[in-house]
Amino acid sequence: RVAEHLEALGVEGFLVEIGGEVRARGRNPRGEPWVVGVEDPDGPPLAALRAVRLDGRAAATSGSYRNAFAHAGRSYAHVIDPRSGEPVEHDAVAVTVVADTATEADALATALMVLGPDEGLRWASSQRLAVHMLLRSADGAASLSTPQFDALCVPPRNR
Question: What's the whole-model pTM score?
Answer without folding.
Answer: 0.87
